[in-house]
Design a protein that fits this description.
The complex is a heterodimer of chains A (159) and B (295). Chain A has one domain. In chain A, 73% of the residues lie in helices and 0% in strands. Chain B has a domain of 158 residues: Thrombin, subunit H (Beta Barrel), CATH 2.40.10. In chain B, helix 4 crosses helix 5. Chain B is globular and about 80 Å long. Chain B starts with 10 loop residues before the first helix and ends with a helix. Classes of the chains: A mainly alpha (159), B alpha+beta (295). Chains A and B meet through helix 1, helix 4, helix 5 and helix 7 of A and helix 1, helix 2 and strand 1 of B.
């Protein structure tokens, strides 16, 4: 993991984790994009041999600890969402950035629904449409994150 | 270099492995509560991340606090002075009332209430997870925080400590779906249970018979039953009472008194001495000593 500037990958994933727990006003908070998912999906598309389902699971577990949810919930959802992209990375790589953004949106919606279903099994929460607002912001975020991370990847020659 | 032939287990095997680990974790964490102590260590492990993540907010707070005009400071100062005068006056009254109350309680052979130890804590981070309402504060096991400890703000009950780390701990808010507070209506003493709904500005009261005297605007205070929350702290104000006779119970909603969505400073309470059912000679002696010292 650490060879060939792998430390940069870890650093970016940690920054994404921090962005996820950064305090924001309540109105903006509902639209907080899935930073960790976006970072994981980019690295999974770019370097599927280095970032895979196990990495996603570990990041999900860290998210569980940081968010105080039942251990394993975000981990499982994250691993499943990344698995779908990891299985089709060769197709998705060839799409344009906007098409990729839509696919990432679908995966992000799946991620949120998975988390909701797990939580629903454990506690009796009810579904609110606001739980899916982050999907919109994730779609908007993807192209910018993609360009930025590609620049970083080329600059540090991570392969 | 990208290897053409992949090494290691296939993605499917990896997925099955991690899902298996996840289900084990979920089972042991949720059903068996085996991670209560481990959570503390995990919490301490990730607290550097939390400290770094809140740095921008703390910088802005610091800037806002430091960049104020002289006029504003003078105004604030004057306001605090008048407030202090008012509170001092109330405090004088309170001391007399407290002494009187202690004596009356002794006469009734009820346990005397002692002052609880308190500590101010600051919010480190608020969870972005929409399914649970929790905040992290900057006090941990090093400050003597313990699990189940009661947390209030300047208006009312906020929640209780859920997991304790070394330098930070996690608080479950009263609005969380999994949380409930035993309350009573301060107007007439009817006991109820206020449980969280997962919405920040609403608590719901379960199993309220139609015959109960409850109106919108009633203040709900902690009843002290259950032994978790000390008695008499404000919890919520009743907002909606729907008495639909076709339903088995009246539907009552209330709004937390504490400003759950704009918390910053919190107060941790240490419980009073374990209360006995009847007052003892030591209590009597303590009260006499207090009143002697006061007079």
């Amino acid at each position: 993991m650490l060879a060939r500037n792998g430390i940069v990958i870890i650093f970016i994933l940690l920054v994404a984790l921090m962005a996820t727990i950064m305090p924001l006003p309540l109105s903006v908070d509902a639209f907080r994009p899935d930073w960790v998912l976006v970072a994981l999906l980019y690295w999974c598309l770019a370097l599927p041999s280095r970032v895979n389902v196990i990495t996603a699971w570990v990041m999900g577990l860290l998210l569980d600890i940081l968010l105080g949810s039942v251990l394993g919930v975000h981990a499982a959802a994250m691993a499943l969402s990344v698995f779908i992209i990891a299985g089709n990375f060769q197709k998705i790589r060839n799409f344009s950035v906007w098409q990729q953004a839509l696919i990432v949106g679908v995966v992000s919606a799946l991620y949120h629904l998975l988390v909701f279903w797990f939580q629903r099994l454990l506690t009796d929460i009810v579904f609110l449409p606001s739980y899916l607002y982050p999907v919109l912001s994730t779609i908007i975020l993807w192209p910018w994150a993609f360009l930025l991370l590609r620049k970083i990847r080329r600059h540090f020659k991570i392969s | 270099m990208n290897p053409i032939f992949k090494h290691g287990p296939s993605p499917q095997h990896r997925l099955v492995l991690v899902l298996f680990c996840s289900s084990l974790l979920i089972f042991f964490d949720h059903k068996m509560n085996s991670f209560e102590s481990v959570r503390g260590y995990l919490q301490s492990m990730v607290s550097p991340l939390q400290y770094i993540a809140t740095t921008p907010k703390r910088t802005i707070d610091w800037a806002v606090e430091n960049l104020v005009t002289r006029r504003k400071l003078i105004e604030d100062n004057q306001q605090y002075k008048t407030n202090e005068l008012r509170y001092q006056e109330q405090l004088m009254q309170l001391n007399i009332l407290k002494q009187e109350n202690d004596r009356l309680r002794l006469l009734l052979a009820s346990p005397v209430r002692a002052d609880a130890k308190k500590m101010v804590a600051e919010i480190l981070s608020v969870d972005s997870d929409p399914y649970s309402h929790q905040v992290v504060i900057n006090r941990g096991a090093n400050d003597g925080v313990f699990e189940g400890q009661v947390v209030i703000d300047d208006r009312g009950i906020v929640g209780q400590v859920l997991h304790v780390g070394t330098i930070s701990s996690r608080i479950l808010l009263i609005t969380d779906v999994t949380h409930a507070v035993p309350v009573r209506i301060s107007r007439n003493g009817i006991r109820l249970i206020a449980s969280g709904t997962g919405t920040i500005e609403r608590l719901t009261l379960n199993h309220v018979p139609h015959s109960f005297d409850i109106r919108s605007g009633d203040l709900l205070v902690t009843s002290g039953l259950g032994g978790k929350y000390p008695e008499g702290y404000p919890v919520a104000k009743v907002t909606v009472v729907l008495q639909d006779e076709s339903r088995p119970f009246a539907q009552v909603q209330s709004e937390p008194v504490a400003q759950i969505n704009r918390l910053r400073y919190l107060l941790l309470l240490w419980p009073e001495q374990p209360t006995k059912i009847f007052s003892s000679k030591e209590d009597l002696a303590a009260v006499k000593e207090n009143s002697n010292a006061g007079s």
